[in-house]
From TrEMBL:
EC number of the protein: 1.1.2.-
Keywords tagged on the record: Metal-binding, Oxidoreductase, PQQ
Family statement drawn from the similarity comment of this UniProt entry: Belongs to the bacterial PQQ dehydrogenase family.
Organism: Streptomyces incanus
Protein name: PQQ-dependent dehydrogenase, methanol/ethanol family
């Protein structure tokens, strides 16, 4: 039997279906002047939010202080952008609005799930252009149909897609400039990370560790998209660190250690600081004896060559799914260049960022039962899935005492502000043979549906807790610190809060209609400060708050400001 194929023609460009009138779909060329020098000095432009964390140091701090402890109770919605999409890849229940809005001179650039990117007027919320990447519906995703944001430089907007591609768009029109593949979707590699622009490169990391892939970082030329280097985060036999994997077999080739959260950068050391993900399989350590470098580690990567210069492993031979992907916050204390990292395992690590030397380790969550880490760095495992079919309960659960959602640091107060998840889980080992593109967890996992708590906790650089704002539910969204002595933090139940950065007192609250699992940012246009927060509950909710798996998703960006003066 002969099958005749008919040319179906070109797919409709969904970016053209936004109802924009001719001439209204072009943004001013504000990104043309964004170069490496401006990114290095981003804090000198507090009216803008130029990169994922606001600045290379990852502090998520803005010196803007128009909105402050005295007047924050007066802020209200300035405008709302409705993304209006429902999540098609991997099922509607998995999508989440996680991005950090980028703002350049009055224009906002924002990404969503399903391959969406938007350019908006940052003062009014009016859409300028939109881009929709055609992502296959059957892409394998472990933990949600999500995207954490874009990067901008030299007239382009950079973002990744769920099917492991890096795209460059024209920042004025949203039209595609170049498109590069950097992961194998057949092996279940994917991408969710917000790119980071450093020098003449765009740097991205891969996702997919739960499917048994080998993690990597990649750098591409800003202008051409030409591949510059790749840094594998699991060594192959014969490379440094390979002795921490079984000598026989291919455990290393499916070892995980994906870098699915944006790194930070210090131009003086020329090092990129990145957290790596869990080993695979997540919970069955018998098939990967050893410490399994460079999983669950903070790695320092030479940004020019892609070579790992030093590492610090937070959870050797992880059996609890404790990725160390959380942000590496750069700060100074007594003239020493340091790095702060709140790990999923429940401990706050302070390292010397020039050489990886351990400075101090302290717990930041109340319940830690999986094991213990002493102040001198000795790790002792106590409870873990060991016997086939034998359930084991431990704290924190696999989403960690803090998941990917980011802490902030205020150089004004000298305090770190961390969203805490105090939730346990039960894991039952289920050995599975590795099969490409099939989940490779090594256990069945059930996260507690009750007996949980959360907080925004403030710590100084010595690990001393200064205050705690308590919540009945885990805190599952990034926080933002500002020069107005405020800390903004969203709750899973929809409240968006402003806390006093020095005392933790709740000063203001607004119900946004959907839970928070995103990155609020702040900026200023025409002398008016705005606070922007994407709202859209979802993602891997069964991992951090299964009792709210069916809660309303939402898909809106809410922007707040003080009333306009008459």
């Amino acid at each position: 039997m002969t099958v005749a194929y008919v040319d179906a023609g070109e797919a409709v460009d969904q970016g053209n279906l936004s109802g924009k009138v001719a001439g209204g779909e072009v943004a001013p060329p504000v990104v043309a002047g964004v170069d490496y020098e401006r990114l290095l000095n981003a804090r000198e432009e507090p009216q803008n939010w130029l990169t994922y964390y606001g600045t290379y140091d990852g502090q998520r701090y803005s010196p803007l202080d128009q909105i402050n402890t005295e007047n924050v109770k007066r802020i209200g919605p300035a405008w709302v952008f409705q993304a209006g999409t429902t999540g098609l890849i991997a099922g509607a229940s998995t999508y989440s609005f996680e991005a950090a809005p980028i703002v350049v001179d009055g224009v906002m650039f924002l990404s969503g799930w399903d391959g969406w990117v938007w350019a908006l007027d940052a003062k009014t919320g009016v859409e300028i252009w939109r881009y929709k990447h055609a992502v296959p519906f059957d892409v394998s995703l472990c933990c949600g149909n999500v995207n954490r944001g874009v990067a901008v430089a030299q007239g382009k907007v950079f973002f990744v897609t769920a099917n492991a591609r890096l795209l460059a768009l024209d920042a004025t029109t949203g039209k595609r400039v170049w498109d590069r593949t950097y992961g194998d979707v057949r092996a279940a590699e994917s991408a969710t990370v917000a790119p980071l622009v450093v020098k003449n490169m765009v740097i991205v990391g891969s996702s997919g560790g739960e499917f048994g892939v080998r993690g990597h970082l990649d750098a591409f030329d800003l202008e051409t998209g030409e591949h510059q280097w790749r840094c594998y985060t699991v060594p192959k036999p014969g490379e440094p660190g390979s002795e921490t994997w079984p000598a026989d077999g291919e455990a290393w080739a499916r070892g995980g250690a994906n870098c699915w959260v944006t790194g930070t950068f210090d131009p003086e050391t020329n090092l990129l600081y990145v957290g790596t993900g869990n080993p695979a399989p997540d919970f069955d350590g018998a098939v990967r004896e050893g410490d399994n470098l460079f999983t669950d580690s903070v790695i320092a990567v030479d940004v020019d060559s892609g070579q790992i210069r030093w590492h610090y492993q937070c959870t050797p031979h992880d059996l609890w799914d404790y990725d160390s992907i959380a942000e590496c916050i750069l700060f100074e204390q007594n003239g020493r260049k340091l790095l702060g990292h709140f790990d999923k395992n429940g401990y706050f690590f302070v390292l010397d960022r020039t050489n990886g030397e351990r400075v101090r380790i302290t717990p930041f969550v109340d319940r830690i039962t999986w094991g213990a880490i002493t102040r001198d760095g000795q790790v002792t495992a106590k409870v873990y899935p060991d016997k086939e079919g034998d359930p084991v309960h431990f704290y924190p659960g696999p989403a960690g005492a803090k998941e990917w959602t980011h802490a902030a640091y205020s150089p004004k107060t000298g305090l770190f502000y961390v969203p805490v998840q105090d939730t346990g889980a039960t894991a039952t080992r289920r050995r599975r043979e590795f099969k490409e593109s099939i989940p490779y967890w090594g256990a069945g996992v059930q996260v507690d549906i009750d007996d949980m708590a959360g907080s925004i906790s403030a710590f100084d650089a010595d690990g001393e807790e200064k205050w705690r704002w308590r919540n009945e539910l885990p805190m599952c969204a990034s926080v933002l610190a500002t020069g107005g002595d405020l800390v903004f933090a969203g709750e899973p139940s929809g409240e968006f809060n402003a806390l006093d950065a020095r005392t933790g007192e709740l000063l203001w609250q607004f119900q946004c209609g959907s839970g928070h699992h995103s990155n609020p940012t702040t900026y200023m246009v025409d002398g008016r400060q705005y606070i922007a927060v994407p709202v859209g509950w979802g993602g891997w909710a069964e991992g951090f708050l299964p009792g709210m798996l069916g809660a309303g998703h939402g898909s809106a960006l809410l922007v707040f400001a003080l009333p306009e003066s008459s």
